[in-house]
Amino acid sequence: MSTPTRSRAAIVTRRAFLTAGASVLALGGAAEAVNAGLLPGRTTLYRVLGLDGPAGTIPHVGGVPVVSGSFRSAARGGIRTGWAVAAPVGAKDLPVVVALHGYGGTHASLFGQELGLDRFLAAHLDAGGKPFAIVSVDGGDRYWHPRRDGDDPAGMVMKELLPLVSRMGFDTGRLAFTGYSMGGYGALRFGWTLGADRVRAVSALSPALWTTAGAAASIAFDDAADYAANTPYGRQERLTGIPVRIDCGTGDGFQTAVRTYVAGFPEAPAGGFEAGGHDMAFWRREAPAHLRFLADALHR
């Protein structure tokens, strides 16, 4: 009798199977290390391992109308600056939420097929939620604070955008801020710089935060002195009297810095940490809760 021989294809298949098995085991170990904060690349590994939870989806409803335009911003050196306002038809004297985009975004990133706040607002209203207007504007990639070169996106919001919105008939005396990533940081900064006399609420989705100047992205601050002047750490008490909500995904690269920031509040803000990455999938999932939070604060 002849001895059966394994084909080359069978050998390759077995080798691939063993390699795949080893990879699964390695990934399992990596997941534990990532959970313990021992490995870099947290965002990528959480996504690959399916640890980010379900993706949020834009509601399948018609959005509230969005009006848009642009102006030359003196505060930003004369740059053409786009803006948009989403508000229910016929409503007058509505309170205002200024929604700030993240790095690489524009005013349009808050609406339409990206974050979709115009549709989330429509769904909020359909469910009986209290009405308000959402305003967005181009801030560039300057992290929503005055920069050494004279570019001042924060001044643009206060001196140019809000007066424009007020002339449109909205009530900027009832004002709140929200934003994601860089915009989440910006929303917090507007809160602590303006205070409770001016701001009714602040909500931040995955705010881009760094605990030291050396850890910060080079574009976020001009230098260590600029970081010190604009870091949120040590300024949590300045938000006293302002309802604050902060949500961040456990697979987000910023989550450790955000946890440190949240721990510095005299009283813990609303929100928390749950499965999610630093992406639209997480921000869309959290959007309905943030709109309800802002509406309740604006109408209190």
UniProtKB/TrEMBL annotation:
Signal peptide: 1-33
Entry's Gene Ontology molecular function annotations: diacylglycerol O-acyltransferase activity; trehalose O-mycolyltransferase activity
PROSITE patterns: TAT (PS51318)
Catalytic activity: an acyl-CoA + a 1,2-diacyl-sn-glycerol = a triacyl-sn-glycerol + CoA; 2 alpha,alpha'-trehalose 6-mycolate = alpha,alpha'-trehalose 6,6'-bismycolate + alpha,alpha-trehalose
Enzyme class: transferase
Domain of life: Bacteria
SUPFAM superfamilies registered for this protein in UniProt: alpha/beta-Hydrolases
EC number assigned by the record: 2.3.1.122, 2.3.1.20
Pfam families in alphabetical order: Esterase
Keywords of the record: Acyltransferase, Signal, Transferase
InterPro entries linked to this entry: AB_hydrolase_fold (IPR029058), Esterase-like (IPR000801), Mycobacterial_A85_antigen (IPR050583), TAT_signal (IPR006311)
PANTHER family membership: DIACYLGLYCEROL ACYLTRANSFERASE_MYCOLYLTRANSFERASE AG85A, ENTEROCHELIN ESTERASE-RELATED
Family: Belongs to the mycobacterial A85 antigen family.
Protein name from the UniProt record: Acyl-CoA:diacylglycerol acyltransferase
Organism of provenance: Microbacterium mangrovi
